[in-house]
């Protein structure tokens, strides 16, 4: 988990498409090379709808009230539902949110500054996305703490306690249904209230689609952003020349965050896909209905596209990374995740001139999940 990239390199060398099994026992076709992954991300023959699956795919066992989300939809339903919330995540709307995100980050770091050591995951990387999502939904961040714990249970389940995942899913469904009910009774000037109005007044969403969309925004808006921030902070501490460079020129923050996205991709795989017909990828014919995993992490280290891919180079030029996907399923919250990471890292750089790791890099603990790549703790002194 700490350094999966040698394994990714071996997979890419072994072939563009590999038949393998995930740690949770699912048989999949793994696509490793940039050109194939890039094309497949926007290939309409590859369905996201699990109804297109054959061959024993199970995945997360979500109830219908959570499963009617964008990660289980193809056009035209995907187009209709995504259009309802896309305006909330445009670059222009995110720019308007920046002062509020900055205030959240500064407030969190005020607490950090009261001592001389901290765990930056617990102090900054985890709470900041919760505060921002709470702002979007009109919900106090404290009210999302339970949701954060349930998310962690699903992403990194304890194999010895499989019932925990079922309990987490049931709790998530109940929490979101209660949240929708409370917002319906007392709407505000927030994204969730607007989504409820689209359901109740305009009839553009089904009730299950409404709750599932709230679930996806909370899940996706939290998990990947936490690890983008955490991985970025780690790169500052592993390679102090970047820390010095950002102090000298804040304009380097956007390319720094882009390189973190490529170099330490927070979400190593795109959401599973199912061919609607037999599909050839990289010279391999994948039968209809089989499960396809597109390795974003492998693609982002492909030497055919990225020169010296194992080097962290914020000034990198060329064909961009695929960390946020591509095409109609490109991550809806990508502009917001970028802004949060830039603001969090920038605030940290400005506030703490003596920032340093408080543990050797090879002793840091990582989340035990193949679905995400991120730290559990990041102890520092300053």
From TrEMBL:
The region annotated as signal peptide is none
Alphabetized, the UniProt keywords read: Heme, Iron, Metal-binding, Monooxygenase, Oxidoreductase
Show the CDD domains listed in the entry.
CYP107-like (cd11029)
- Listed Pfam families: p450
InterPro entries per record: Cyt_P450, Cyt_P450_B, Cyt_P450_CS, Cyt_P450_sf
The family database entries (SUPFAM superfamilies) matched by this protein are listed as: Cytochrome P450
One GO molecular function term of this record is:
heme binding
Similarity comment text for this entry:
Belongs to the cytochrome P450 family.
- For this entry, the protein name equals Cytochrome P450
Q: What is the lineage of its organism?
A: Bacteria, Bacillati, Actinomycetota, Actinomycetes, Streptosporangiales
